[in-house]
Amino acid sequence: MKLGQDIIVATALELLREQGLDRLNMRALAQRLGVQASALYWHVGGKDELIALMGIEFYRRAYAAAVGATDWRGWLRALGQEFRVALLACPDSARLCVLARPPDGDATRSGDDLAAPLVALGLDRGRALAYQGSVLAFTLGWVVYEQSEALHDHLSALFSFEQSHHEGLEAMLRGLAD
After folding, report:
1. Could you tell me the CA-to-CA distances from 118 to 3, 65, 100, 114, 141 in Å, in that order?
2. By 3-state DSSP, what share of the chain in percent is helix, strand and coil, each rounded to 5?
3. Which secondary structure element, helix H or strand E, spans residue 139, and what is its range?
4. All domains of the chain, ordered by start, with CATH?
5. pTM (2 decimals)?
6. Within 13 Å of residue 7, how many CA atoms lie on the same side as its CB?
7. CB-CB contact of 96 with 21 (8 Å)
8. 29 to each of 26, 46, 82, 97, 152, how far by Cα in Å?
9. Are the C-beta atoms of residues 32 and 24 closer than 8 Å to each other?
10. pLDDT digits over 115-128, tens only?
11. How far is residue 98's CA from residue 53's CA, in Å, rounded to a whole number?
């Protein structure tokens, strides 16, 4: 197996699923890959960059689900729904995404790439970015509660996470201006 960034990130996501964020470290990752920890730094600048690259995978899945929507609300709905599904598939993923910083040189930093699908569906760039940010922040915050050991059981006794996320997302989408 040739060591590369994709393999490192995929293996780190496996470790996250198995052991959680608190036990994820470069030494454990290197051991899983059968290399010295120093070998990882040829492909990943450090743990902060690794976390950023891992976080991108959850967003990437959500953005892929929105492709093909015929209106901007449908696009945002698909984004929010799939982001929640992607996050719930991996323990501690929401916390990881909260900690992740965009990697240096990330092409999306200008926002043009992020705004483009919604601009094509009729929104101006400012609203496209603000609306995406709102949907992602709402969903990320929601999943933080769902994945919280401290709050999950208490909150799930009060309401359905799935139904409440759906209703909250729909209310948000209805309230966004054209």
Report:
1. 37, 14, 24, 8, 23
2. 75, 0, 25
3. helix 125-147
4. 1-45 (1.10.10.60), 56-175 (1.10.357.10)
5. 0.90
6. 13
7. yes
8. 5, 12, 27, 19, 29
9. no
10. 999 999 999 999 99
11. 13
